[in-house]
Amino acid sequence: MRVIERGSGSPRVAVVGGIHGDEPAGERIVEQLVEEVRVADERIEGTVQLVVANERALAVGERYTEVDLNRTFPGDVESDTYETALAARLTTVLEGADAILALHTSHSVPPPFAIYSDLTESVRKTVTGMPVEYVVDAGNLRDTTLDSTLPHTVSLEAGRQGSEEAVDFGLEAARAFLRAHGVLHDEEPSFRETPVVTVDEEVPKGGGEPAVYYRNFEEIPKGEVFARDDVYTHRVTSEGMVPVLASEDGYDDIFGLYGRFTGTLEPHFHSGT
Ligand SMILES: [Zn+2]
Questions:
Q1: Which helix (H) or strand (E) element contains residue 82?
Q2: In 77, 84, 170, 210, which residue has its Cα 20 to 30 A from 93's Cα atom?
Q3: Contact by Cβ (8 Å): 10, 98
Q4: 19 C-alpha to ligand 1 centroid (Å)
Q5: How far is the CA of 73 from the centre of ligand 1 (A)?
Q6: CA 30 to each of CA 58, 119, 150: distance values in angstroms, whole numbers, following the listed order
């Protein structure tokens, strides 16, 4: 794990890349921010923690070395398993932060989107302050991810794994995140309403030739097949279902998640936050 801190005092916000070693965009975004965010920079107020998480997995270009880091939070510092111990160390570094942005990419198609598990005012500020079209509420589904174990954490799915677009978008979103929390003062923050999709079901994958027929956030008409392989045919039996993180080859065990539009996150804040 590499941790670079810039500035001092509060608020303290963190940008974390390289949670998954096969997603190089996060590390590149963090390295770029290290260059951009200088200690004596008068545009900076508060503390910025810039973190590259899973260096061993990044070195070999694999998602993880022993277990998926983003399935082993809060971790255990005593563990012999590399990622489980790393999760605990990362938690210690980030604990108490006012806002955390965890950078990811996927095999799924655009648009980029944000994910949260617990909607705090800080999370609302992060989501509505970034140029994302959608946000996913994964609170029903996740309990071992960074965003479900550390308060005020938002995950960003910045785009397709390995693409330059994901690096560009992730950088733009990370700068917007710093502006939204009053840390970066290069330009005014801007906030927008963000539609929320609540996910509550994983769509399992069996084996054989996988096929996915609907894109992220595209409504699947009742009675239509979302995905199939030699084991499963996933026919949607109710109205209003949309897929999230849909992909044929992105994950070994799931085609993605089922969700529904459940509202809109408004960019209004209580005073003092
Ligand atoms: Zn990831």
A1: helix 82-94
A2: 170
A3: yes
A4: 6
A5: 14
A6: 13, 25, 20
The residue with tokens 């999760």 is 87
Structure tokens belonging to residue 203: 């769509």
Query: 104: CA distance to ligand 1 center in Å?
Result: 4
Sequence-distant (6+) residues with CB within 8 A of 126 are 99, 101, 114, 152, 154, 177, 180, 181
Name the one residue in this structure whose structure tokens are 């198609």. 109
**Residues near 15 by beta carbon (within 8 Å), at least 6 away in sequence:** 29, 30, 33, 48, 49, 50, 51, 100, 101, 103, 174, 177, 178
* pLDDT number for residue 40: 61
Q: What is the pLDDT of residue 172?
A: 98
Instruction: Give the tens place of pLDDT for each residue, 63-121.
Output: 999 999 999 999 999 999 999 999 999 999 999 999 999 999 998 877 999 999 999 99
Which of 253, 244, 209 lies closest to 63 in space, CA to CA? 253
Closest CA to 241 of 254, 222, 225: 222
Is 78 exposed, middle or buried (CB count within 10 Å of its CB: 0-12, 13-18, 19+)? exposed
> Residue 243 is which amino acid?
P
Other Cβ atoms closer than 10 A to 165: 14
Q: Which of 180, 216, 179, 157 is nearest to 25 (CA)?
A: 157
